[in-house]
Amino acid sequence: MVEEENIRVVRCGGSELNFRRAVFSADSKYIFCVSGDFVKVYSTVTEECVHILHGHRNLVTGIQLNPNNHLQLYSCSLDGTIKLWDYIDGILIKTFIVGCKLHALFTLAQAEDSVFVIVNKEKPDIFQLVSVKLPKSSSQEVEAKELSFVLDYINQSPKCIAFGNEGVYVAAVREFYLSVYFFKKKTTSRFTLSSSRNKKHAKNNFTCVACHPTEDCIASGHMDGKIRLWRNFYDDKKYTYTCLHWHHDMVMDLAFSVTGTSLLSGGRESVLVEWRDATEKNKEFLPRLGATIEHISVSPAGDLFCTSHSDNKIIIIHRNLEASAVIQGLVKDRSIFTGLMIDPRTKALVLNGKPGHLQFYSLQSDKQLYNLDIIQQEYINDYGLIQIELTKAAFGCFGNWLATVEQRQEKETELELQMKLWMYNKKTQGFILNTKINMPHEDCITALCFCNAEKSEQPTLVTASKDGYFKVWILTDDSDIYKKAVGWTCDFVGSYHKYQATNCCFSEDGSLLAVSFEEIVTIWDSITWELKCTFCQRAGKIRHLCFGRLTCSKYLLGATENGILCCWNLLSCALEWNAKLNVRVMEPDPNSENIAAISQSSVGSDLFVFKPSEPRPLYIQKGISREEVQWGVFVPRDVPESFTSEAYQWLNRSQFYFLTKSQSLLTFSTESPEEKLTPTSKQLLAEESLPTTPFYFILGKHRQQQDEKLNETLENELVQLPLTENIPAISELLHTPAHVLPSAAFLCSMFVNSLLLSKETKSAKEIPEDVDMEEEKESEDSDEENDFTKKVQDTSNTGLGEDIIHQLSKSEEKELRKFRKIDYSWIAAL
Amino acid sequence: MAGYKPVAIQTYPILGEKITQDTLYWNNYKTPVQIKEFGAVSKVDFSPQPPYNYAVTASSRIHIYGRYSQEPIKTFSRFKDTAYCATFRQDGRLLVAGSEDGGVQLFDISGRAPLRQFEGHTKAVHTVDFTADKYHVVSGADDYTVKLWDIPNSKEILTFKEHSDYVRCGCASKLNPDLFITGSYDHTVKMFDARTSESVLCVEHGQPVESVLLFPSGGLLVSAGGRYVKVWDMLKGGQLLVSLKNHHKTVTCLCLSSSGQRLLSGSLDRKVKVYSTTSYKVVHSFDYAASILSLALAHEDETIVVGMTNGILSVKHRKSEAKKESLPRRRRPAYRTFIKGKNYMKQRDDILINRPAKKHLELYDRDLKHFRISKALDRVLDVMQDSDFFLCCFPTCTIKTPEITVSIIKELNRRGVLANALAGRDEKEISHVLNFLIRNLSQPRFAPVLINAAEIIIDIYLPVIGQSPVVDKKFLVLQGLVEKEIDYQRELLETLGMMDMLFATMRRKEGTSVLEHTSDGFPENKKIES
Fold it and tell me: Is residue B324 classed as helix, strand or coil in its secondary structure?
């Protein structure tokens, strides 16, 4: 069905949420954050993504509420446009084309028809704050070229710009100076801190700035953790500042509360500090937020704060410093050591998450499912600390076991290594630590694999290490008369001429184990642990190793560092074929014989899909990514696709995901993932999303009963009138925001038409007048009403002047449901 | 968000015996009382009735001891030759014993002279027992016969001549007055019924049977002989249930604990083993100075009495548990506070909400949570702050749990503040740290962390060295320790080289090209590199 379309690489979820400050809606019900090319609208209560506003062609760099209409949102992007959105319905209202890259956006209530943006015009690193006059025009796309210059030579980051005291001045910081521009006087004052010449002030750099909402006070954050509060800056000479110092590392962001009574600051310590009354003594803390605080924002209503963290997370915090909700995206803070894995139970993507955690990330809903704390230690976030890293992880026995390896290497000789084995507990639905092995090897573990054969009676794990050994661990019964216990013990230690063991891999049926020792591949019998045979191609160290599956299980594939891909036949113990391919990623598909290899060249990365039995690839896609691809994984599909074309058949049962060096998660698809991501939240619109509280049960029911009674009486007294609520045309009309509807004159005739009763229905059906059988009557009534509505739709359509055959088809009804989309065309026509 | 995560204390597997309920139970005895007898103690038997006196058969005498007396309260010495197997009747008032000359004598506990003498055996009688009806005595002798005697008229009732070797052990059923069992050196255990003239059951033990035991229910039979203890299911017609081989010399005696949950066996290898009677696994083991011949447990396991070949009787009494309550009790809130609301019955619609468990943080964790690093280190290095007046030589915390101290040092190092925590200490404080290092530096499991700490200390305190003789001395000790360790490691390395050579030659002889390291050689290797 989709065969004709080309497969292309699409970005799938996992986009950044912490790129810019999040923005609250005026009623604190929603929170907006930029996320790649989109703006995401989340509910602050349910943490659910309500809308994704797509329309920008490049990275969205700033969002602000429209100060004149708090139901609208401005966004600016690197594609040079400012867009105005209706965020409740997720509709793009207007696009203003500015024409140059926009790096940040600010709005001011006082400057009604203009917004402020940061642009860079001449040189790549010189940024200017300019104000853009937004022309008033009814067309959808408007050119907004009227720029007026405000400040020059400023920092790119919007954190370094703040508008203060009802837009009287704007403060900007860069390096060692603070400049304040007064709009009325049109003058700039500049205050400079002593710079790096003496050691004491070496880290005086400004990092961020915030302005008091009502007083003339500017707070600035600094590299050394100090916060300075500037006052009397109207005068170049008489200015004063006071210092607040708690942070020991740089202040990442500052924000004043709405009333200005408290100042919030955050930094690498992952502690949100609230300074009350701008004094050093009165401070409150919210510690252990998990990762560096990148941005802080305050809701206009003043009841909520939110912090954006470097681990791609937004925490919504109550006024009393209690975290109330967490919006967590795919954690992409750090380098991925574990690679991409699929949890066999939840089919979630598993990879390194927060420091010391494994994250389980649902690809379907672009949402983090949960974090598994592996290292279980207090995380101290400090610059230059060597942390314990989670380096390897593997699932085994259909998700029943999880093995993880953590290491910390301070110096060459001091290596801390720990292997943990986790058992899945059905009762708690989570992994529980079963065995902890200190120093399982003398040197770093390079590979880790479980024996995943169907019939294996004893769970088996193999670890390969740089110390030249591979070890086989088995689950043994450790129970005695007092308790039942199972634990993992070392069963066998193997080595081959003291070469470093680099990879290990079990065959599909678990009978053979392949371990590569630098250039040599050794094959071991998994029952007796005897060395069966060795393969050596003298083509550099083996980088990847994997067995063929299903019909190709007699083949073993190895990719070397010198760019040779070898395929050995295990029956003849001979090289079957080899190819020159600089393989970076090699992943077997668990559902088929296919193997995907991604090669790296100077231009970019190419994908090759092949079966081990044939040296000719099934599918080639060149240039899947500019940068290096680090990891890839096949994810089994829930519902198999039906690509008939031979080239795409490899995508039928599994989908291939890969992660590039810049940590963007990509996949191959014919459709954009955003289309597939049908947020369940379309219905979560304002009035529908009212939670069913106990009050609702009491009052809502009561009201419904009243309504029903009213209806009954009406029905009895009057001639049957169609209920207005049940006519889709009318409900659509009433529910569509006023500003997107065509003019009232245009709608009037249609509206009236829809209220009219058509004659045929009256003649067709008698009005039942039996009072005893009320219930039956009601159901009949509703049937009738449906009939009415169908007729009404017809009439309304004829009212639009379209020639329509008088038939009650479903497609028409659907068309009407898409009412909102149609009405754009009307606007254009007008 | 998440709470403070306490420091993970590295745990190490405890080598040697695990502490289980059984080890606690069986170790809860006082140091043994040793009583010297005239010859090898062949039999110890407790009176089933209070005050639970016990009869000890050794050489030609039978001594009756009271529970706590070290001197015999009564002695029967009217034997011409060695006496055997003095056994109490169920009511504790009569005592029967066999002797080397073939006689069986019946004594009253209060009297001195034998009440009855059963003559009929031609050779030494090694086993005698009362039947369950109290009026008969069973005896087995070296003349291969088993006889049943009537006490009132001291007549022989029955003679069984089915054994083909010495009959050395036997016991009568506690439930059925007609059933009794004998074990013989002809490797068989036979069950006789006084109502028939021949054995009703015979099981083949495989070794000369030294001791037999019937479970109180009579359903299970335990026989000991050679190195084996075998358990037979009598209800299944003498089917072998389990064969235990936990001793490495002949098992000489068997005994059941008073609860019937544990089986004890004594052996010539000087060990008493305790088995669970559900899984037949050894749960505990006692060591004695000499080969064990006899073994008995008092009522409620209050006393273990073991007789040995060198004539020593070892008596162990259980520790009294009343002592623990004598600790000074702190003043607590009134009883009323605790029972408040206790008797509230849960109503139908009530939802029970348990009080959330309060997470208790250790003191050092509390310090670390508040970044008081030096204090946290002090806390694990000594606990003398709150018990200053003791001024004992070593703080208890570091002696008992060096792994906590090491884990804290490791945690400080991970946080990058170890140098800060170690710096700025005076003579007394630094000597605490050095003491700890000296004691634990050479332990392989702590070495990587402590060597790092030692290096930092040396770096910090190098400029002030020579100012305090105490600290200087400690440094010298530390230096000596390190030198010794290096020598030791070198020696180990040499040994490993030798072993490698031996392995290599062995392999060549086999002619195979298996190249993997044996798992035996590996721990050695690990130790050296560490």
Answer: helix
Q: Which of the listed ranges A660-669, A725-734, B274-283, B485-494 does the model predict with the highest average pLDDT?
A: B485-494
Q: Residue A550: pLDDT above 50?
A: yes
- Determine contact: B322 vs chain A, CB below 8 A: no
The average pLDDT across B443-461 equals: 88
**CA angle, B303 as apex, B301 and B309 as ends, to 5°?**
120
Q: Looking at the structure, do residues A318 and A177 belong to the same domain, yes or no?
A: yes
- Chain B interface disruption, residue of A293, A322, A378, A386, most B CBs within 10 A: A378
Structure confidence by residue, pLDDT tens digits, A70-116: 888 999 988 888 889 988 888 888 888 888 888 888 888 877 788 88
Distance in angstroms (rounded) separating the CA atoms of residues B219 and B12: 44
The ipTM (two decimal places) reads 0.71
- Among residues A495, A419, A528, A503, the alpha carbon closest in space to that of B525 is found at A495
How would you write B392-418 as a 3-class SS string? CCCCHHHHHCHHHHHHHHHHHHHCCCH
Q: Mean pLDDT score of chain A, rounded to an integer?
A: 79
- Do A17 and A314 meet the contact criterion of CB atoms below 8 Å apart? yes
> What does the alpha-carbon distance between residue B295 and residue B246 come to, in Å, rounded to a whole number?
17
Structural domain that includes position A552: 547-671
- Where is the domain boundary, A638, A653, A671? A671
Task: Give the mean pLDDT of B502-510.
Answer: 75
CA distance B444 to chain A (A): 12
Q: Give yes or no for a contact between B368 and B380, defined as CB atoms under 8 angstroms apart.
A: no
Contact between B526 and A442 using a beta-carbon 8 Å cutoff: yes
The fold adopted by the segment(s) B24-317 is Methylamine Dehydrogenase; Chain H (2.130.10)
- Asked if the structure places residue A775 within a domain, the reply is no
Domains of chain B, by residue range, sit at 24-317, 363-388+396-485
Task: Determine whether the interchain pair B519/A490 forms a contact, defined as Cβ–Cβ distance below 8 Å.
Answer: yes
Q: Are residues A557 and A632 in the same domain?
A: yes
Q: Is the pLDDT of residue A616 over 90?
A: no
Cα–Cα distance measured from residue A369 to residue A332, given in angstroms and rounded to the nearest whole number: 15
What does pTM read for this prediction?
0.70
At A676 the pLDDT is 45
Total structural domains within chain A = 5
Place of tokens 């690093």: B373
Q: Please report the pLDDT score of residue B67 as a whole number.
A: 82
Q: How far apart are CA B367 and CA B371, in angstroms?
A: 6
Cis peptide before B72 (omega within 30 of 0): no
Report which secondary-structure segment, H or E, holds A251. Answer: strand A251-256
The residues of A whose Cβ lies within 8 A of any Cβ of B are 288-290, 315, 323, 326, 376-380, 382, 384-388, 408, 410, 414, 416, 438-439, 442, 469, 480-482, 490, 492-497, 529-531
d(Cα A270, Cα B38) in Å, to the nearest integer? Answer: 81
Same domain? For A317 and A170 the reply is: yes
List the structure tokens of A705: 């009963």
Which tokens go with A761?
């229905």
Percent of chain B with pLDDT over 90: 39
How far off is chain A from B488, nearest CA to CA, in Å? 20
CATH assignment at residue A181:
2.130.10.10
Contacts of B4 in chain A (CB under 8 A): 288, 378
Model confidence at B324: pLDDT above 70: no
